[in-house]
Design goal:
The structure holds 2 protein chains of 2 kinds.
Chain A lengths: L5 E3 L1 H38 L11 H27 L2 H34 L1 H17 L12 H12 L26 H8 L52 H42 L11 E3 L6 H32 L1
Antiparallel strand pairs in A: 1-2
Helix pairs in contact in A: 1-2, 1-7, 2-3, 3-7, 4-7
Chain B lengths: L5 E3 L1 H38 L11 H27 L9 H27 L1 H17 L12 H12 L26 H8 L52 H46 L7 E3 L6 H27 L2 H23 L1
Antiparallel strand pairs in B: 1-2
Helix pairs in contact in B: 1-2, 1-7, 2-3, 2-7, 3-7, 4-7
Subcellular location (chain B): Membrane
InterPro entries (chain B): Peripherin/rom-1, Peripherin/rom-1_CS, Peripherin_LEL, Tetraspanin/Peripherin, Tetraspanin_EC2_sf
Keywords (chain B): Membrane, Transmembrane, Transmembrane helix
Amino acid sequence: MALMLIKFDLKKRVKLAQTVWFMYWFAVMAGVLVFSMGLFFKIELRKRSEFMDNNESHFLPNLLILMGLITCVTNAFGGKICYDSLDPSKFAKWKPMLKNFLVSCMCFNSLLLMTALLCFLMRIPLQFTLTEGLKNGMRYYKDTDTPGRCYMKRTLDLMQIEFRCCGNDNYRDWFEFQWVSNRYLDFSSKEVKDRIGSNVDGQYLMDAVPFSCCNPSSPRPCIQYQMTNNSAHYSYDHHTEDLNVWKRGCRDALLSYYGSMMNTIGALVVLVTILEVAVIIGLQYIHSSLSTLANPEDPESESEGWILEKTVKETFTDIMAKMKAMGKGSKVEEGGEAVVATVS
Amino acid sequence: MVLLKMKFTQQRRVHLAQGLWLLSWLAVMCGAFVFCLGVYLKTELLRREEVMDNTEIHVVPNILMMVGLASVGTNWVASRVCQDSLEGSRFPRWKVLLLAWFVVAALLCCLLIAAVVLSYALQGHLEESLKVGLRNGIRFYKDTDVPGRCFQKETIDRLQMEFRCCGNNNFRDWFEVQWVSNRYLDFTSKEVKDRIRSNVDGRYLLDSVPFSCCNPASPRPCLQNHLTDNSAHYDYEYQSEELNLYNRGCRQALIDYYMGLMNSIGPGVLSVILIQMSVLLSLRYLQTAVEGAMALENPEDDSEGYLLEKGVKETFEEIKANVLSMLKFRQVDPTSTEESPEAANAKKVADNTKEKAGSSTPAS
């Protein structure tokens, strides 16, 4: 017994073909959308590649771009088939390859679903890349005279201002790096010599943060220097001070930014997959209704359309049997050759 | 002598009506476009209204919005006229409305030109308004505990960071104002007491700027305090230091921004004026050509279309005469009611006898 059998007359077939043709054109737009989202994501990753150590994986945006292109092509092709289905002579040339086309569309759909799943999972490798990248960013903050790193300061400052974040996890990360270049340190001064002598690597470490960490919403002019020293500033307690500098770490800020982008893209790809399944079902109905015409010569005769010729279970056992037969067939051939060899 | 006469065959009239219908729908879109431009300009001005002292400059986006809406309606009417112009029965009802339409369309064009002119003419007013607004903003920077002014600090900080500017004219404006609130000053410290005593008003003045003046492109971590003291920082000379802070004043930055906005809106508005003028002229031709055709014995014959029935000067004289006679008519009425009722009656009787005499003489 066929799965979801529907009776079709000419009028219904024409209507079905027109509807599926419209849906194919929607699906082409959806393919363009997936392509452009992949492109957008790629550009956003490139923009901040300095904070990912230039090491970020472009696998996902490249996959989205490829999927978008393939979606466009297959759906345009499917639309052409729908358009031709109303004309029996034109449809005859598509008929033989239609079954293979439908099977390949199903495989492509499953690939699309995997892409959507990847979008949701990509957050995890991104987290590691960002941690490394931001740490290096802060380390090279002072190297404004080193070629290749001279824009790191500006980029990091602008990013902290734009994303309203400070440091990797929080502002204390800045205390562990020397972010003032040696060019601007007076090595004859006692204070500088003390600070450099106070740690193993000979670095000038301060309990201070760059100006880009300052929060404009603070009621007080920004306190950047001597942040852990309560007596250095009037009426200041660094344990309770909330609004002075940004509390959030830049890794969290960037992760949530990219995370929301990827979630949106993943959700849209799932919707596109559902649309694709719908057009495949539509095309299967067209295919089955046109191949079961009661009177093959008369285009106005009635026919039946279905999703699967037999029930799901029967179709599955059929496919398994076919695969076994193919496997046995190759075995028999080998056995036959061996027999022939022994005989001869 | 007729102005710019053109011959119209039936075919040409039909083409003119169709072309004008398309053009008037294009003009409707342009009207919507002008409205959107006005809305955009107004939102941009409103976003920074806290640093502006007055709203005189808002007249430009207001005109644009008004004209945009009016032109959508006007051009829609023009498209309806085009649709009816080819049917002899439906066209006459537009006759009266068309004169009003021409006046309104010409008025819209004039208003658009006025908007463009004003956007340049009001630049001085905008500058003044920004000067006062920014000065107040800088003065009230420290008042984060005063209701009504508590967001001034955040506004000025975000403005300076977004527009990459510092102070009103330059960063030295911050030296003249106390921008650190008294709540965060330790009045027992000698340094604070010295600074407060060093000026007449008892303000705590510094040669420092807020952090939002810092330039991220500087190779050196930002120097905010003791800016005029070369010895306070290693390897620092404030006269030659260029990249440390933003050099531009916020007034200049905002003026440049708004002038750039109006300059890019200008060509769009000018092309809308051109389109509106062409709709106006084409509709005049269509009106005269169709009216001429309807007056002929065979409506499908050739007719003439023109812009003005008489020359420009003669038409102007005629309009002047019409307006004056309308005014005179109004003046004559009050003077006639002042006359005594008997005199009016006598006048009426005399008129009647004159008419009777006049009518009787031809009979006899």
